[in-house]
């Protein structure tokens, strides 16, 4: 999955299937006080590309994913899908229109499947609403998608609780795929799974990307897995994008001090590497995203903070071809 | 500190032998822990690794006397702390060593702290019960401990409630409670699983510093092999209620002698820019612990399975050193090959798919037949083996 490289020289923003422009999502927590969950994200996702989105809990990566599929209204900014601007607030007809194209896989395979529906009902619900399937071909189609994700057609009359975590996640994937979408937002699809099962799900997503030409936004906090899965990697901190670039560039040659600390904190399954590594530990914690002060959001924890960082917002700009960051060090 | 040979001569603090734990459930008896043995020495970190439902948490809970009985039952084994048996002692006696000699940190710091008590009172409680100090002295000790675990402004934070702390800070409070009475053994059950990587790095560093200062033994329960590589001196890999491989951290990572350990490694990405590795998942699911298989518990998922594996559960055989043990028939000492070197070679080969055929040929040449007639994996949940 790593071979596709979107960093074509000269074009910072390749024409993407999904163009996110200065997207903001604010929640009003009390009168006049806003939580800036997503605060001005610009990202272009190319066709048949896997973009990995990482960041610590509370950085807004899940909110971004949910805003993209219309589960949250957009506070400002726009999302353009194949040249068409998505509505900032989805009406039910918009869901019907766009959910065929952009689907979502959820983190928790336990709470994201209705316990009172059989697998057949879960998978067929979307296509039946969209009148894609005739009622006499439902069994055949459900069987097809179950086989596609490595389950068996015999499983369609069972309920979600009869399956293991990895199998449930496959059902969630089959449900998303049954509509034959072009884009899938994967919100931590493997975080709840055991190591041996994570590889099953990741390999499946990779295979589907190759064979079905899918575009994936892969949201996760496991840096090693995101590097493995993604063509490009995007790093978020406190609602804003701090770095975007080819996955290997971002992982092995990170530009932003936050990305550097994040990768330095990622323990690797290799005792010799771990022994030789200097454990630079990032101080402090992610501050509250309510009523943010001006200046770089990372300034308070940044080992390289300068005076300018305290007052001026860094501009997100391209530093190396296809590799952008928002940091005054590269201004 | 990480040099494994240093620890061989150290004093053994905790010894667990043939521990077996069962639970009565509606579905029958779950055999959650099936004959686990290990030792931990002073100043040493033992990591117990395994996937959900493998019995790693039940193992350490039984050391602390935290298994609810009924429905739980310890059917055999002993646990010795500094030579004294601590398994199945009276509650009164258990309370003397719990929190005093053995401290424990739990995975979820929110549900394991009392939400209606200030953190200071909770920390002081431990000290007051075990050391019999006054409330004032307890409070003073609580502040010292909060400073020790690097909580800023400890003097005012001591009067705060758990909800006023972030996840990482709560885990620090848990650590302060666990080490309040200077235990010789600290059990950390997935201490960083709920935390972000940068906070995880802070907590792991704190644990290493405390260990160095106090020469404490740490039993670290985790499923994260990265954390193991960073923290452990010794590793025990658990699968379906048994230890399938144990040894020093280097032996487990570089000379592994069990297909399950190798399978876990192959299923994880490696951060090497030059080599692009293909992840190899472990197909199937762990066995049903209501009715554990007669043969090797990994038989159904094992790429190296032989006929004998389905019939008989292997004992722990030596691999590369006297301390490196693997519960696998491939490690049977044979043909006067010290340490079964030939076997390990073929095992390592299977890591690389290109060499799989090679390994198969080698297998055939050794007169062994790969067992293909596996029944299609029956449908069951990952959780079938978990405690109720």
The biggest beta sheet of chain B is recorded as: 8 strands, mixed
Mean pLDDT of chain A: 88
Within CATH, the superfamily of the largest domain in chain A carries the name P-loop containing nucleotide triphosphate hydrolases
Q: Which sequence of strands runs across the widest sheet of chain B?
A: 6-7-8-3-9-10-12-11
Features:
heterodimer, A: alpha/beta, Rossmann fold, 11 helices, globular, disordered N terminus, B: alpha/beta, eight-stranded mixed β-sheet, four-stranded antiparallel β-sheet, disordered C terminus
Describe the structure.
The complex is a heterodimer of chains A (331) and B (388). Chain A has 331 residues and is α/β, with parallel strands linked by helices. Chain A folds into two domains: 191 residues, Rossmann fold, CATH 3.40.50.300; 58 residues, no CATH class. Chain A contains eleven helices and twelve strands. In chain A, the strands form two sheets. In chain A, strands 6-7-8-3-9-10-12-11 form an eight-stranded mixed sheet, with helices on both faces. Chain A has a four-stranded antiparallel sheet with strand order 2-1-4-5. In chain A, strand 11 and strand 12 form a beta hairpin. The N terminus of chain A is likely disordered. Chain B is of the alpha/beta class and 388 residues long. Among the domains of chain B are: 74 residues, no CATH class; 133 residues, no CATH class. Helices cover 32% and strands 20% of the residues of chain B. Chain B contains 14 helices and twelve strands. In chain B, helix 8 links the parallel strand 7 and strand 8. In chain B, helix 4 crosses helix 5, helix 4 runs parallel beside helix 7 and helix 5 packs across helix 7. The longest helix of chain B is centred in the middle third of the chain and has 18 residues. Chain B starts with 11 loop residues before the first strand and ends in a 23-residue tail after the last helix. Classes of the chains: A alpha/beta (331), B alpha/beta (388). The interface between A and B is large, with 47 and 51 residues.
């Amino acid at each position: 999955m790593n071979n596709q490289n979107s960093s074509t020289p000269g074009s910072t923003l390749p024409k993407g299937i999904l163009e996110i422009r200065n997207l903001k999502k604010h929640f009003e927590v009390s009168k006049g006080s806003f939580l800036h969950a997503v605060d001005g994200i610009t990202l272009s996702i190319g066709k048949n590309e896997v973009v990995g989105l990482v960041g610590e809990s509370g950085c807004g990566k899940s909110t971004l994913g949910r805003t993209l599929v219309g589960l949250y209204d957009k506070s400002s900014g726009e999302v353009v899908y194949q040249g068409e601007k998505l509505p900032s607030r989805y009406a039910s007809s918009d869901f019907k229109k766009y959910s065929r194209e952009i689907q979502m896989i959820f983190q928790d395979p336990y709470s994201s499947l209705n316990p009172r529906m059989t697998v057949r009902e879960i998978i067929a619900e979307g296509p039946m609403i969209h009148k894609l399937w005739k009622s006499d071909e439902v069994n055949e189609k459900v069987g097809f998608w179950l086989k596609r994700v490595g389950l068996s057609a015999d499983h369609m009359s069972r309920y979600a609780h009869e399956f293991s975590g990895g199998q449930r996640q496959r059902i969630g994937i089959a449900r998303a795929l049954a509509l034959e979408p072009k884009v899938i937002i994967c919100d931590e699809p493997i975080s709840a799974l055991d190591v041996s099962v994570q590889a099953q799900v990741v390999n499946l997503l990779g295979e589907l990307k190759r064979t079905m030409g899918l575009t994936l936004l892969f949201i996760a906090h496991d840096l090693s897995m995101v590097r493995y899965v993604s063509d490009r990697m995007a790093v978020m901190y406190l609602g804003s994008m701090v770095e975007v670039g080819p996955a290997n560039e971002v992982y092995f040659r990170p530009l932003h001090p936050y990305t550097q600390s994040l990768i330095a904190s990622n323990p690797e399954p290799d005792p010799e590497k771990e022994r030789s590594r200097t454990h630079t530990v990032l101080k402090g914690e992610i501050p509250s995203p309510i009523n943010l002060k001006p200046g770089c959001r990372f300034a308070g924890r940044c080992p390289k903070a300068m005076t300018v960082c305290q007052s001026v917002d860094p501009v997100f700009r391209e530093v190396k071809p296809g590799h952008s960051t928002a940091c005054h060090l590269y201004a | 500190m990480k040099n494994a040979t240093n620890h061989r001569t150290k004093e053994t603090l905790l010894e667990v032998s043939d521990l077996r734990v069962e639970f009565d459930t509606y579905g029958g008896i779950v055999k959650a822990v099936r004959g686990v043995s290990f030792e931990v020495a002073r100043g040493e970190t033992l990591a117990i690794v395994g996937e959900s439902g493998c019995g790693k948490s039940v193992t350490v809970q039984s050391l602390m006397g935290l298994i609810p009985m009924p429905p739980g039952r310890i059917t055999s084994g002993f646990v010795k702390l500094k030579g004294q048996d601590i398994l199945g002692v009276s509650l009164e006696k258990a309370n003397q060593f719990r929190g005093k000699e053995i401290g424990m940190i739990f995975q979820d710091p929110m549900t394991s702290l009392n939400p209606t008590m200030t953190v200071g009172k909770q920390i002081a409680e431990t000290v007051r019960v075990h050391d019999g100090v006054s409330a004032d002295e307890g409070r003073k000790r609580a502040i010292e401990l909060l400073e020790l675990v690097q909580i800023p402004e400890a003097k005012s934070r001591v009067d705060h409630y758990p909800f006023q702390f972030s996840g990482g800070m709560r885990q620090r409070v848990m650590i302060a409670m666990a080490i309040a009475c200077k235990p010789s053994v600290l059990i950390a059950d997935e201490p960083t699983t709920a935390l972000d990587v940068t906070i995880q790095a802070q907590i792991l560093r704190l644990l290493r510093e405390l260990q160095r200062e106090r020469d404490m033994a740490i039993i670290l329960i985790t499923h994260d092999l990265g954390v193991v590589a960073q923290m452990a001196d010794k590793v025990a890999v658990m699968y379906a209620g048994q230890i399938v491989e144990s040894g020093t951290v280097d032996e487990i990572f570089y000379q592994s002698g069990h297909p399950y350990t190798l399978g876990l490694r192959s299923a994880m990405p490696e951060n090497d820019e030059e080599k692009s590795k293909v992840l190899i998942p472990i197909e199937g699911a762990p066995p049903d612990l209501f009715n554990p298989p007669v043969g090797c518990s990994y038989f159904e998922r094992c790429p190296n399975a032989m006929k004998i594996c389905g019939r008989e559960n292997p004992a722990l055989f030596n691999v590369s050193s006297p301390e490196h043990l693997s519960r696998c028939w491939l490690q049977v000492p044979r043909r006067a090959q010290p340490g079964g070197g030939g076997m390990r070679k073929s095992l390592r080969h299977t890591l690389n798919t290109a060499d799989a055929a090679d390994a198969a040929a080698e297998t055939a040449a050794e007169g062994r037949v790969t067992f293909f007639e596996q029944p299609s994996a029956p449908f069951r949940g990952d959780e079938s083996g978990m405690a109720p």
